[in-house]
Amino acid sequence: MKVKICGIQDVQTGQYAVEQGADALGFVFAESKRKISPKEARKIIKELPTEVFKVGVFVNEELEKIQEIILQTGLDAVQLHGDESPNYCRNFAIPVIKAFSIESRADIIKIAEYDCEYVLLDSPKGKYRGGNGIKFDWSLLENFEARGKKMILAGGLNPENVTEAIRKNTPHMVDVSSGVETDGKKDFVKIRSFLEQVKNWEEIG
């Protein structure tokens, strides 16, 4: 089971997450308390192993600006967390993770319109798109078919509930941000605990 730790803002946290087993790291370029500049993201990415999947998170951003940040930072994928259309998502040479806020079955049905490699299923919108620490109703995913897409589960995951989340939803990857924070900052103890839970979920679950 793969893990993405989102909202990385410094080298030490990024390196620690990777040492503990994180497969992907997220860098938020949209409005958020975890927002990072391309310059700072580049510094962190340069210090990470090449095999780690570096993901840039954007919300309704201009295409040219995203393309510029990809070149500037060395991102491996873009996560589009806004109202981007299926056509917009086809404009990238690197993999696209299209995020969906899940409130009803209608949101699940909408996923079929997109042909991107990954879909990220997240909680309903709060102050920001994503990173709000709220779990959505997993029962909405009953009979969900990814149809060739890799499903990433997000929204309110933490060390206490991630094993259950994996068992019920069988995602390709789980994504966490606020669930491994204390007072708005990444907490190394929680990061380690989360990764231990995920990597050993079959024994624990």
TrEMBL record:
Keyword terms, alphabetized: Amino-acid biosynthesis, Aromatic amino acid biosynthesis, Isomerase, Tryptophan biosynthesis
Q: What chemistry does it catalyse, as a reaction equation?
A: N-(5-phospho-beta-D-ribosyl)anthranilate = 1-(2-carboxyphenylamino)-1-deoxy-D-ribulose 5-phosphate
Pfam families xrefs:
PRAI
Q: Its annotated pathway?
A: Amino-acid biosynthesis; L-tryptophan biosynthesis; L-tryptophan from chorismate: step 3/5
Enzyme class, first EC level, given as a word: isomerase
- Please tell me whether the keyword Acyltransferase is annotated for this protein: no
InterPro entries given in the database record: Aldolase_TIM, PRAI_dom, RibuloseP-bd_barrel, TrpF_fam
Its Enzyme Commission number(s) read 5.3.1.24
Q: Boundaries of each N-(5'phosphoribosyl) anthranilate isomerase (PRAI) domain copy? A: 3-196
Which BP terms from GO are recorded? L-tryptophan biosynthetic process
What Gene Ontology molecular-function terms does this entry list? phosphoribosylanthranilate isomerase activity
Does the UniProt entry include the keyword Isomerase?
Answer: yes
Give the CDD domains listed for this entry. PRAI
Q: Which family does it belong to?
A: Belongs to the TrpF family.
HAMAP family for this protein: PRAI
Instruction: Name it.
Output: N-(5'-phosphoribosyl)anthranilate isomerase
